[in-house]
Amino acid sequence: MPDNRYELITILGPTAVGKTAVAANLALAIDGEIISADSRQVYRGMDIGTGKDLADYTINSICIPYHLIDIADAGDKYNVFRFQSDFLSAYNHIRHLGKQPILCGGTGMYIEAVTKGYKMVSVPVNEPLRAELDAKSDEELEQMLRSLKQVHNRSDFDTRKRTIRAIEIELHQQSSGHSFTFPSINNIYFGIAVDREIRRNRITQRLKDRLREGMIEEVQGLISAGVPVSTLIFYGLEYKFVAMYLVGELTYNDMFSQLNAAIHQFAKRQMTWFRKMERSGDTIHWIDGTLPMDEKINQIMSTIQQYR
Fold this sequence. Notes:
Elements: E1 8-12, H1 19-30, E2 32-36, E3 58-59, E4 62-63, E5 66-67, H2 80-96, E6 100-105, H3 108-115, H4 127-134, H5 138-148, H6 160-175, E7 187-193, H7 196-212, H8 215-224, H9 229-235, H10 237-246, H11 252-279, E8 284-288, H12 293-306
Parallel strand pairs: 1-6, 1-7, 2-5, 2-6, 7-8
Antiparallel strand pairs: 3-4
C-alpha cells in the first residue's frame, strides 16, 4: 500500500461488531500497531468482562502490537485525561518506529479526546472543598454547578459524588487553567456496523459465552483481591451486575436479564455518540461488519487511497 497522508486511522463502532479483528487485520496489511480506545480494557485482571479478545491480535502466528491494554490496576479510576497522555506516548512511539498508528475502540469520549484534541486539565483532589460541598443539599449542588458552567447532559448529576467532582473540576479550571495543548492529528474514521438485530443476537450470545468462560469467577477474584464492590459497580455493565449478584442483591436470572438489557442500551448509546460526531461534521466511512474480512480490509484501503 502506498504512503497515505493520514497520521492516524481510527476504527470505531458499537460493542460486538468485530472492531478488534478488523483493526488487527488492517495493521497486518499496512504495517501498523493498534492503540486501544476502550475505557475498561486498561485494567489488569478485567479480561473477560471487558472483552479484550487478545487472540484477535494474532493472525497467522503473527502478533500485532497493541497499546493501552492492561496499563492500570483493577480498582483504579482511569480517566480521559490520563488516556490523552498515554495515547500520545504510544502514538509517538509507533510513529518513531515508522509504523501506522491505528486507534480502535468504542469509547466515544476517548476517541474524540485525541482525534479532536480536547483541552483537558489535570485536577487534583481538594479535600477541604469536598467537605464544604458535602454539607450542601443535592439541589444546592446542582444549582452551584449550573452557575459555573453550561450543563449539556444529566451525567454530572447521577450521584452526589459525581456532582461534587464536577464542581471541583470546574472551580480548578477557572482558578488555574493549567492544561497542555494536544497536537493536531490528521485522522480518518472507519466505522464497523451490523444490522441491529444481528448486533442484538451477538450481544446476547456473547454474554452467555462470557458467563460460561468464567466471568463470574473473574469478578469474584477481583473482590477477593480487595477491589471494592462499589468500584466494580462504578465500572458498570458486567462488573456492576455480576458484583450485585455475588453480594446477593440480584438472582442469577435477574442479573443476566438486566445485564443483557444494559449492554443493548450501551450499544445504542455508542451509536448515538457516533451519529452525533457525524452531525457535528465528522465523516465516518461505515463498513458492513458482516462482510468477509478481506473485503472489509480492501474497502478501508481503497478509501484511504481515494482520500490521499
